[in-house]
Design goal:
Keywords: Transcription, Transcription regulation, Transferase. The chain is mainly α. The protein has helices spanning about 15-20, 25-35, 60-75, 80-90, 95-110, 115-120.
Amino acid sequence: MYVGSNRYSKYRNIGPALLSEEGHMITKAKKWIRRELAVFDFLNPSSPDFGRRERRATNAEYLLEYIVAILKSIDLKGSAGQADELLKNYLGRENARLFLHELESWLRSPFERLKEWDQATQYAEPK
């Protein structure tokens, strides 16, 4: 669920400039991206689905660096959906949207440890 940016929540708005200025934000992003990319079997060399998808990349580390480049250059919430478009060829449109939404939420948060993030994150009940 969305948490507003303010001094009480310690959530803040992010964008390419902030990520470039604050080096620890890239480290924070990579921590989350590595964990989340592990969900996709076609990126896991020990999976029978490894490399079978018709995707441009089958290497998780390549995709991680590609996503970091997107973060450094494009606003994830851009109205044109540029970040979604760039990532859809790798993860599929719906997965890309959800992935980028969750990534932005993680980066906006005051949490530095994934365990804390997991414990605090709340999701709306499905309708």
